[in-house]
Amino acid sequence: MAIGIDPTVDFTFKMLLGSPEHPGLTIHFLNSTLEEPRISEVEYLNRFQDRKYDDDKLSVLDILAIEDHRRRLNIEMQSSPTKELPQRLAFYNARSYVNQLTPGATLR
Questions:
Q1: Contact 38, 30 (CB under 8 A)
Q2: For residue range 34-92, what is the model confidence (pLDDT) as tens digits?
Q3: pLDDT tier at 108 (50, 70, 90 boundaries)?
Q4: What is the sign, positive or negative, of the torsion defined by CA atoms of 40, 36, 108, 51?
Q5: Domain ranges of the chain
Q6: Are 69 and 39 within 8 A, CB to CB?
Q7: Which residues have C-beta within 8 Å of that of residue 77, sequence separation ≥ 6?
C-alpha cells in the first residue's frame, strides 16, 4: 500500500469500516459487496457479545452494525483462512441472532 497502512490489520480494518464518525466508507463497502436492497444508513452496535455465565465464551466481533432495513451485519476481516472459521462464524451468527431477543419474545 502506498502509505504503508495495511487495511487487513485488525485495528486498521475497524478504524476504516467501524467508525461511527465516518459511516460513508462502511456503507459504500457494504453496497459494493451485498445484493439489494441498497443501504443508506448504518448504526454501530456493541461488538462485545456479553457472556451470560462465567464459563461462556466471550465473542468479540470486528464490526456489528444494523443497516436501514434493520438487518444485523457482522462484518469480519480474515487475512487467512483457518479450519475453525466456519464454526466461528456460525457461533457468532447464532449469538447475534439470540441477542436480538427481548424478555418474553419468541423466535419467528
A1: no
A2: 887 788 888 887 777 666 777 777 667 778 888 888 888 888 888 787 898 889 888 88
A3: low
A4: negative
A5: 10-99
A6: yes
A7: 8, 10, 13, 62
